[in-house]
Design brief:
Blueprint: H1 22-28, H2 31-37, H3 48-58, E1 65-70, E2 76-80, H4 81-97, E3 105-109, H5 114-125, E4 129-133, H6 139-149, E5 153-156, H7 158-163, E6 176-179, E7 195-196, H8 197-202, E8 217-223, E9 231-236, H9 240-251, E10 258-261, H10 268-280, E11 284-288, H11 294-304, E12 308-311, H12 313-322, H13 324-328, E13 337-340, H14 347-357, E14 361-365, E15 375-376, E16 390-391, E17 397-400, E18 413-417, E19 427-428, H15 432-436, E20 439-440, E21 443-452, E22 458-463, E23 468-470, E24 473-475, H16 477-485, E25 490-500, E26 504-513, H17 521-534, E27 543-546, H18 560-568
Parallel strand pairs: 1-11, 3-4, 3-5, 5-6, 6-7, 10-11, 10-12, 12-13, 13-14, 26-27
Antiparallel strand pairs: 1-2, 8-9, 9-19, 14-15, 15-16, 17-18, 18-21, 20-21, 21-22, 23-24, 25-26
Bound molecules: adenosine monophosphate.
Length: 581
């Protein structure tokens, strides 16, 4: 297949791209070169917070603004690298004073507030393992993650604490709840036993020396699979190597950039590229607490003169929906590089970027387990619209068959990575068997299906499993089915991803009812509400259909593929394992 490339109109010709001569670099590259660009901590250790913040303070850049925070009510706070260093050190000391020891899990259930960033980096500085939770989660996902990780400290806000109050007694290992009441927004009295963040850090020292090594665990993000509850993919401090260098290569970051990553720290993009990559590259980063609204986003780009912007296809499709003119009404000329991740980026999205911002979106591919970008379209190289791009120097990516053997260009197979890349996940928390099952014949199997063309560009085909990608967030059907069957009316539930023009897929559930329940419109609405209350709006089903019974294999597994084929009017494929009613 011959895929055309698109011509890029270089916005800023004064500076050559950070990554040049891709092919030559791929041949000559070694990770030892990147190791030399980092600071390291005394004694040869490595610490993410130190690489992000402290090392810029030691030179002349301590006065440079590291974070511009824009609150949901229009508030603004600015922190220099030196101020960040102080806040992070205070937090590291405060957490240590609560009894946190190296390797202890600290979970952060917060909106995008400055304190979210201080706490995540503070935990990392002090050697804790941090688990950021998406603030839209309902009680069930929070309980599952706190229980599985054995978190001892939870940092949250008064409102979010109230939302999950019922599950907190079920989290046996939890010892402290730290409350961030940003700008005194909440008038709720502090629950007895809880610790106010402000008072805790006020008395803490502003100095802290990190003692972690490159192999110490750093961040854990829960990610969904086809079976069972989400698993905690655990990373280590060594990941900063890859996040730092891909920030340069794939986002073209330079110290004078004003950078904006729209992802929430509850997802891996929000930590790897919403904290570690930008700050290890010394940029000024915009953090916006509010959600998506195209016109507000354009206003932010114009007001803060954002130069590099990393966002996601669902947002791009929503911008496309309101049209190019809305973008053109704002002055977005400060932008010089724009990129996208999380779902397939349709060629139309790339062309929209060119029309609206005079720049194409550069698609790149990676996932929670890889910890950093693996495949990318680079500033210097032509984009093939619809392709995720080519592997970064220093990693080997291939398409392999189900036995783990590489296949020839153009053949669809499993997207696989040779283990050993710096930001590789180290385990699934308390689930080493599941971790091991991801490797075959010397390859890490990503769960995605793709093909590679003759020029070495990778093209996404789909997931190899039943995992749903809704607005860039992976949803495991099992998690949603488990929530639904907790309702007394539901006997069985099967959950699929239904194609959607904006969110790529939306969650759709099929349920069969217990004796004595009627499939009424009222019950449907009640179930939708029930699931939303337990999960979060993004994860809960958007649609529910009633079926007398669900198709199952002879061994009793619900055949989601068949539910999906029937929903979409597609051929039902091999149904030989189907259990007859
Ligand atoms: P997560 O682990 O939640 O970050 O989700 C990772 C998954 O999102 C990948 O395994 C893919 O299925 C999907 N994904 C991420 N980036 C892309 C992309 N550029 N194109 C297509 N799918 C993507």
């Amino acid at each position: 297949m011959d895929h055309p490339t698109i011509e890029k109109r270089a916005r800023d010709k004064r500076q050559p791209p950070q990554l040049q001569k891709y092919e030559a670099l791929r041949k000559s590259f070694s990770w030892a070169q990147v190791e030399k660009e980092l600071d390291w901590v005394p004694g040869g250790g490595l610490n993410i917070a130190h690489e992000c913040i402290d090392r810029h303070c030691e030179g002349k850049r301590g006065d440079v603004t590291a974070m511009v925070w824009v609150g949901k009510n229009g508030e603004e706070e600015r922190y220099t690298y030196e101020q960040m260093r102080v806040e992070i050190n205070k937090c590291a000391n405060a957490l240590t004073s609560l009894g946190m020891r190296k390797g202890d899990r600290v979970f952060v259930f917060l909106d995008r507030l400055p304190e979210t960033y201080f706490t995540i980096l503070g935990t990392l500085k002090a050697g804790g393992v941090v688990g950021p939770l998406f603030s839209a989660f309902g009680p069930d996902p929070v309980r599952d993650r706190l229980q599985d990780s054995g978190a001892t400290i939870l940092v949250t806000t008064p409102e979010l604490r109230k939302r999950i109050a019922a599950i907190l007694p079920q989290c046996a290992e939890l010892q402290h709840i730290v409350i961030v009441n940003k700008l005194g927004r909440s008038k709720e009295p502090l629950v007895q036993g809880d610790v106010p963040y402000d008072a805790l850090v006020a008395k803490a020292s502003a100095e802290f020396t990190a003692t972690t090594t490159r192999d110490d665990y750093s961040i854990m993000h829960y990610t969904s699979g086809t079976t069972g509850k989400p698993k905690g993919a655990v990373h280590r401090h060594n990941s900063v190597l890859q996040q730092y260098v891909t920030g340069k290569w794939c986002l073209d970051l330079r110290p004078d950039d004003i950078y904006w990553c729209t992802a929430d720290p509850g997802w891996v993009t929000g930590t790897s590229y919403g904290m570690i990559a930008p700050w290890s590259n010394g940029v000024t980063q915009l953090v916006y607490e509010g959600g998506f609204k195209a016109t507000v986003w354009y206003e932010l780009i114009a007001k803060y003169k954002v130069t590099v912007w990393y966002t996601a296809p669902t947002a791009i499709r929503m911008m496309m929906k309101i049209g190019v003119e809305a973008a053109k009404r704002r002055d977005t000329k400060s932008l010089r590089f724009i990129a996208s991740v999380g779902e397939p980026l349709n060629p139309e999205g790339i062309f929209f970027g060119q029309e609206a911002f005079d720049l194409p979106f550069h698609d790149n591919w990676w996932q929670t387990e890889t910890g950093g970008i693996m495949v990318a379209n680079y500033a210097e190289a032509p984009i093939k619209p619809g392709s995720m791009g080519r592997p970064i120097p220093g990693v080997e990516v291939a398409i392999v068959d189900d036995k783990g053997k590489t296949v020839s260009p153009g053949t669809v197979g499993n997207l696989a990575v040779k283990p050993g890349w710096p930001s590789m996940f180290q385990t699934y928390w308390r689930n080493e068997a599941m971790y091991k099952s991801k490797f075959k014949d010397g390859w890490y199997i990503t769960g995605d299906r793709a093909h590679m063309d003759a020029d070495g560009y990778f093209w996404f085909v789909g997931r190899a499993d039943d995992v749903i990608n809704t607005a860039g967030h992976l949803v495991g059907p099992f998690e949603v089915e488990s929530a639904l069957v907790e309702h007394p009316a539901v006997a069985e539930a099967g959950v699929i991803g239904k194609p959607d023009p904006i969110a790529m897929e939306v969650v759709k559930a099929f349920v069969s009812l217990r004796e004595g329940y009627e499939p009424t419109e009222e019950l449907r609405r009640e179930l939708l509400r029930f699931a939303r209350g337990k999960l979060s709006a993004g994860v809960a089903p958007r649609e529910i259909d009633f079926l007398p019974s669900l198709p199952k294999t002879r061994s009793g597994k619900i055949m989601r593929r068949l539910l999906k084929a029937r929903e979409l009017g597609l051929p039902e494929g091999d149904t030989s394992t189907l259990e007859e009613d």
